[in-house]
Amino acid sequence: MTVATDSQRTLAELVAENPARAVVLDRMGLDFCCHGNRSLSEACSASGLDPDVVAAAFDAVADEMPSGWTGGGRGDLAAYVESTHHAYLHDELDALEALAVKVRSVHGGGHPELEEVANLVVEVATDFRPHLATEENEVFPTIVSLAPGTAGDARLAARIDELVAEHAALGAKLARLRELTSGYTVPEDGCASYQSLYGRLAHLESDTHIHIHLENNVLFPAALVEAV
């Protein structure tokens, strides 16, 4: 893997080749899901980072076995996203909302940012629920039903455009959560619930980045291009 080659490849391509690189990009604040079409060079320039440093970090994970999605057709990928990432959200969102409200009630006086944190967690959960329902009940079944070698029609393309826009809005809210929490850094007076909230928010962010990457950069494009 050479820096010259990597710096011209898109973030989406780099993560698709080895999902372990997602951890590197998350740690460096490079958005590979909603803005995965940018080259590594472009993304680093916008964030004031050195592509050589990022490429070196990629080298450190180059031999790791990728976790999660390992290949298959459009139907297989839709099923994987639903059974893995959607299932996680269905299990997590209600409890995460309740925890955010609890931590705000206990620590909000000393940490006023928790007011916006709790509100954002509620907004993210509220946004995700109908979004997941649309994917599970409409878009994914349509993708699964596509005959081999065919592409989705204009209606499917329009629905996908709507989902991608919703992904961007969710990504912005997750980015704001990271900013408010100083990268999910628990303050010295943070209790176990505080620690749990920030740890779970960090996991929500990293899981959602992979989730959106698989949809925006792999599944949805595959659904709109005739397979050869």
Largest sheet data: none
Rounded Rg: 19 Å
Average predicted local confidence, pLDDT: 88
In total, the number of strands is 0
Roughly what percent helix?
Answer: over 70%
Kindly, what is the distance between the CA atoms of the first and last residues, rounded to a whole number of angstroms? 28 Å
Shape: globular
Judged by helices, strands and strand pairing, the structural class is mainly alpha
- Spans of at least 5 consecutive residues with low confidence: none
Order of helices and strands: HHHHHHHHH
Number of H- or I-type helical stretches: 9
**What fraction of residues sit in β-strands?**
under 5%
Structure notes:
By secondary structure, this protein is mainly alpha-helical. It has 9 helices and no strands. The chain has helices at residues 3-6, 11-17, 21-27, 40-47, 51-61, 74-107, 113-145, 154-180, 192-223. The model has no long low-confidence stretch (mean pLDDT 88).
How would you briefly describe this protein structure?
The protein is mostly helical and 228 residues long. Helix content is 71%, strand content 0%.
Features:
9 helices, mainly alpha, single chain, about 230 residues, about 70% helix
Q: What is the element layout, followed by pairings?
A:
Blueprint: H1 3-6, H2 11-17, H3 21-27, H4 40-47, H5 51-61, H6 74-107, H7 113-145, H8 154-180, H9 192-223
